[in-house]
Amino acid sequence: MLARLDQPIAAIATAPGRGAVGIVRVSAKSVQAVIEAVCGRALKPREATYLPFRSADGSFIDQGIAIHFPAPNSYTGEDVLELQAHGGPVVLQLLLARCLEAGAGMTLRVAEPGEFTQRAFLNGKLDLAQAEAIADLIDASTEAAARSATRSLAGEFSREIHVLRDALINLRMLVEATLDFPEEEIDFLQKADADGQLQRLQLKLGEVLERARQGALLREGLHVVIAGQPNAGKSSLLNALAGAELAIVTPIPGTTRDVVRQTIQIEGVPLHVVDTAGLREGADQVEQIGIERAWGQIEKADAVLFLHDLTRADAPDYRAADDAIRAKLPEDVPVVDVWNKLDAQPLVIPAQAGTQGSLSLSAKTGAGLDTLRKQLLAIAGYHAAPEGVFIARERHLHALRRVDAHLMEAAALLAQQAQALDLLAEELRLAQNALNEITGEFNADDLLGVIFSRFCIGK
Ligand SMILES: Nc1nc2c(c(=O)[nH]1)N(C=O)[C@@H](CNc1ccc(C(=O)N[C@@H](CCC(=O)O)C(=O)O)cc1)CN2
Ligand SMILES: Nc1nc2c(ncn2[C@@H]2O[C@H](COP(=O)(O)OP(=O)(O)OP(=O)(O)O)[C@@H](O)[C@H]2O)c(=O)[nH]1
Are 242 and 193 in contact (CB under 8 A)? Predict the structure, then answer.
């Protein structure tokens, strides 16, 4: 692996397919050999030069722009050459092949996915959270997700983590110093307000965790399943939410036989909506498979919109069939009772106990859709002002929750009048490790450096 990290790499940096401009990038200890062979002249550092890209036989592959980013001032921190050509798949493949040929002497190879960014991380250009934010920015499905990824990329998330880490290091210094001078122990910790420090740290961690949770929501989105009896208007609701005719709508019960998916957004939160086959007994074989798939989707959902037909709300057999469905809904998935066709039957239906609420709307006219959208955001727990959110991943949330658990342990130990100072120290150490996982900084010397620089050990 390490040897591979030393190898020069090249790749087409732009999306596959046709485009106005396409870029081939080379990163190596030195890209001079490739510059000489392909550009046929020296390049001024970090300056765009318009020139022909040359084949080995001297013919031109394309006329384009070349930029040399001398190490270490480049995206990867290595020597980087960028060739900006016309964006055709064939011309870019030819240019890449030409670079590989020109760099054969230094074993230039095609980069693996993420390898340029991995080098940027290893060369200290970015930390791990920032590197992940680059991928999240590229994958963002809404503007809010993209903006919060940019904030993480700019280091906002990492800065919050560093603030937590610095406070944690201070506390660890206190505890570890107390360990070294046991006769002063309790006094020392009390005087330095170790309790207060820990409490403030926990409070701050709670805030960061909440912001990260909002960011993770922007990244992952919410999986919502529309379920209910045939003809309740499930496909109509999907279409109304999406603002497009995606699913087939007919008055014939059992129209939707397979799941239909669509990602829409509410205030920037991606919503993965699934329309399912109507749930009923005595369906034919194909419909039955659709119904089984519907239940499979319901079990995996973050929320279920249980759709009912308001015009049939008074029919005992209709209510009985709804009750049968309700009895089978998983307990741990939030359910919203949605009474549809409000335009045809203007009735207000009492809230169903034990659900995330009940509302009525018309998929046909759109009345009540806004209330539903707000309800979905509330279930997701999304309430952030988008400018305060930074993108985060499940991995980050997991690490932050582990930090939280270690700090709770530490608080419990501290409350026991420091009878187990070494255990307390260990909990704080584990908390810091979990924090460091987020930014990818695992270096134990960090802590030692700070301790030694601030404490006079000989004293
Ligand atoms: N043409 C082009 N556009 C691009 C990229 C690229 O590689 N090429 N990027 C890549 O994905 C992104 C920009 N990322 C970059 C990050 C750092 C440096 C760079 O030269 N850094 C130096 C100098 C910094 C400075 O002058 O402030 C350094 O870090 O020392 C360049 C691009 C998006 N746009
Ligand atoms: N008046 C009125 N009719 C509606 C409304 N929503 C849906 N419908 C009608 O109800 C019928 C069934 O709608 P669909 O959206 O196909 O219902 P579904 O629940 O997907 O049906 P299945 O595919 O059978 O499960 C169609 O004739 C729709 O036009 C509404 O808000 N008001």
Answer: no
Largest pairwise CA distance in the chain: 87
By three-state DSSP, how is residue 388 classified? Answer: helix
Paired strand residues for 67 = 82
Range of the domain at 167: 138-217+393-440
Query: Which pTM does this prediction carry?
Result: 0.81
Residue 146 has pLDDT above 60, yes or no: yes
Query: Is 361 in the same domain as 263?
Result: yes
Contacts of 138 (CB under 8 A, 6+ apart): none
The answer to whether residue 388 sits within a structural domain is no
Pocket of ligand 1 (CB under 6 A): 23, 69, 73-75, 82, 125
Helices (H), 311-386: 316-328, 369-380
| Ligand 2 site, CB within 6 A | 230-236, 249-251, 253-256, 277-278, 340-341, 343-344, 362-364
pLDDT at 22 over 80: yes
Same domain, 232 and 209: no
Render pLDDT for 368-384 as a digit per residue (tens, 0 to 9).
999 999 999 998 888 86
Distance CA 331, CA 434 (A): 33
Determine how many CB atoms are found less than 10 A away from the CB of residue 140: 21
Helix (H, G, I), strand (E, B), or coil: what is residue 193? coil
CB atoms near residue 336 (< 10 Å): 21
Look up residue 428 and give its two tokens: 């704080």
Number of the ligand 2 atom closest to the C-alpha atom of 365? 31
pLDDT digits (tens, 9 = 90+) for 382-398: 886 766 788 888 889 99
What is the 74 CA–ligand 1 centroid distance (Å)? 6
